[in-house]
Amino acid sequence: MSRSPDGRFDTDRAGYADMLEVALAFPERVWAVEGCNGIGRHVAIRLLADGEQVIDVPPRLSARVRMFATGQGRKTDATDAHSIALVGVRMAGLRPVVDDEQLAVLRVLADRRRAWVRTTPGWSRSCITFCWS
Question: Is the pLDDT of residue 20 over 70?
Fold first, then answer.
């Protein structure tokens, strides 16, 4: 098993599989992941692909909880995990994470359109902006 005595899992496939195996003991589970649009995205997407429910915990909210729970702002893995779990359990209205491929494609198209408009001459840019608005 690629799990350390303090409850950490390796970041490879074996560690991920071990983490899921431990989680199977909890049939009604929801994963609280911090920063699903940033650093936590890869874990959230893997969990979604495996049929798990994931909610996004905003980093500012978990930092605030960590500050109140510990009386200080020091970051450690244990206090981070605890504060994220507290937010996930106690806060209503957290955003569920969905893997929406169509939305991702639309974001790429919008980004490319913005980049293209920035590089086109002024007269065609105003025409394009007018037509797309």
Answer: yes
